[in-house]
Design goal:
Blueprint (H helix, E strand, L loop, with lengths): L2 E7 L16 E2 L2 E2 H11 L4 E6 L3 H8 L4 E4 L6 H6 L2 H4 L5 E6 L7 H14 L3 E7 L8 E4 L5 E5 L6 H4 L3 E10 H8 L15 H8 L4 E5 L12 H21 L3 E2 L6 E2 L4 E2 L4 E2 L4 E3 L3 E2 L4 E2 L4 E3 L2 E2 L4 E2 L3 E3 L2 E2 L4 E2 L4 E2 L4 E2 L4 E4 L2 E7 L4 E4 L2 E7 L4 E2 L4 E3 L9 E3 L4 E2 L4 E3 L2 E3 L4 E2 L4 E2 L8 E2 L11 H17 L8
Parallel strand pairs: 1-4, 1-6, 4-5, 7-11, 12-15, 13-16, 14-17, 15-18, 16-19, 17-20, 18-21, 19-22, 20-23, 21-24, 22-25, 23-26, 24-27, 25-28, 26-28, 27-29, 28-30, 30-33, 31-34, 32-35, 33-36, 34-37, 35-38, 37-39
Antiparallel strand pairs: 2-3, 6-10, 7-10, 8-9
Helix pairs in contact: 7-8
Length: about 475
């Protein structure tokens, strides 16, 4: 039987007070809507319809070809929103899951459990419920004497007795698809808001003698919708706890989970240690036996096995096995390190490929460069890659030595086993095994230091007497 999903993402989200559509706000590096779309796919929904309204263009742009989008031109309630999918799936046989786009904490295993309960009970509708200590503002689940669900009552429409109920509607449902759209045609808007509630479908199906089932999640957080920045921060905290726990259960040591921030798409190998203050973002992949942090900020990077990264920033970089990075290094996009490289303190790389065993220990910039293996850079060496208009490439052969405070003015090639003397500014190619020196010849003037000091003292005395510098 086909499984479909309808994701509700048309609301304005006024309480977010943001130019960004509510469901596009990220939680652990991924928009809330992205989490929900992933859940639908992982739960086995082969076709997903996203209902868009406010900010429709932005939502459509994000969704792309992951789902079909249908416009709800007027926001007349959740029932009216689902009804907009009728032209696409209203006549289909199968089961439809309805999920709100602002519930990023829902899990695929919960949806699968709901679907199993739905099929086991032969139900027309199965709803997700949760028991919460403070149900204020949430729809209450009304059960009959036999414990079966009869209807859902929105908070503003509850009687005093109904307000004391702590089992709430989590806003996620499984429906027999055809029965869902038949019932939607009977929903009325005679309520405090004048809207067409999806929750009324439960009562309509119950009154028609259909079976209504419920699956109560053991984790009330799954029922939480994000309506403001406070709820967004709480969702971030709860998801971060889940992510960190998953990595620790898989063999990763996280010294202090409360100060470690890992996005949902990050992969980490076993026996890697993550120190406090570390942020791992995007599609970062870290191999086994690494030491990351403290204070490492890594985004969309691939890191091999046995790598150490301390107090450093990596963005779209590739790091081979056994490399050491930091402290205070910055690897910008296009940085690619072969195995065994050492990148030290206050080193910046950009669009640079470094061969195996190459070392850039400290205070250097290597940009737009192709560097061979076992090259050594002295302190303060720079590839001068930009002339104000164009960027040019520096090529350095295997085993070359680049002395301290060397400027390599690109485009330039340094051959294998070449030696560039400290303090040189290199503007021409250096052949393999040559030594290059490009600096002024040193001149020592005997006893001249005392003359300079005497001149300085005399100038200071004139200024103290208000005579001026005496220089023209």
């Amino acid at each position: 039987m086909e499984r479909m999903a309808v994701v509700l993402a048309a609301g304005l989200g006024k309480r977010m007070k943001s130019k960004r559509h509510k469901v596009l706000h990220p939680v652990c590096g991924k928009p809330m809507l992205g989490h929900v779309l992933d859940v639908a796919a992982e739960a086995g929904c082969g076709r997903t319809i996203v209902i868009v309204g406010h900010g429709a263009d932005a939502v459509r742009s994000y969704v792309g070809d992951r789902a079909e989008c249908v416009l709800q031109a007027e926001q007349l309630g959740t029932g009216h929103a689902v009804l907009q999918a009728g032209e696409l799936i209203g006549g289909e046989e199968g089961t439809t899951v309805v999920i709100c786009g602002d519930t990023p904490l829902i899990r695929p295993e919960t949806i699968r459990a709901m679907l199993e309960e739905h099929e086991r009970a032969g139900a027309a509708a199965t709803m997700l419920t949760a028991v919460v200590p403070d149900p204020a503002g949430l729809g209450r689940v009304i059960r009959g004497k036999d414990g079966r669900v009869e209807r859902i009552v929105e908070h503003r429409d509850c009687t005093p007795d109904e307000l004391r109920i702590t089992e709430i509607n989590a806003g996620t449902y499984c429906f027999d698809n055809r029965k869902l759209f038949e019932a939607l045609g009977k929903v009325k808007n005679d309520n405090a808001q004048g809207e067409y509630y999806l929750t009324d479908v439960i009562g309509i199906l119950h009154d028609a003698g259909e079976t209504i089932a419920a699956y109560r999640t053991p984790d009330p957080a799954e029922a939480a919708g994000v309506n403001d920045r406070i709820a967004l921060a709480e969702a971030e905290r709860l998801m971060r706890e889940r992510i960190n726990r998953r990595h620790m259960e898989a063999g990763v040591t996280i010294i202090d989970p409360q100060t470690t921030y890992i996005d949902a798409g990050v992969e980490i190998g076993a026996d890697t240690v993550i120190w406090p203050g570390t942020i791992l973002r995007g599609r970062t992949v870290i191999g086994e036996d690494c030491v990351v942090g403290p204070q490492a900020d890594i985004t969309d990077s691939v890191i091999g096995r046995g790598v150490t990264v301390r107090h450093s920033v990596l963005l779209e970089a590739e790091v081979g096995d056994g490399c050491t990075i930091g402290p205070y290094a910055h690897l910008r996009p296009g940085s690619k390190l072969a195995a065994g490289c050492r990148i030290g303190d206050f080193v910046e790389l950009k669009n640079a490929k470094l061969g195996e065993g190459t070392k850039v220990p400290h205070l250097s910039y290597v940009g737009d460069a192709i560097v061979g293996r076992d090259v050594n850079f002295g302190c303060g060496a720079i590839t001068v890659n930009y002339d104000g208009y164009n960027k040019s490439v520096t090529e350095i052969g295997d085993r070359a030595f680049i002395g301290s405070n060397v400027n390599l003015i690109a485009p330039v090639k340094i051959g294998e086993d070449a030696y560039v003397v400290a303090g040189s500014t290199i503007t021409h190619d250096v052949k393999p095994n040559d030594m290059a020196i490009a600096r002024e010849r040193q001149i020592n003037k005997e006893g001249y230091a005392e003359k300079l000091r005497a001149r300085a003292r005399a100038k200071k005395e004139r200024l103290s007497r208000g005579e001026g510098s005496g220089e023209s």
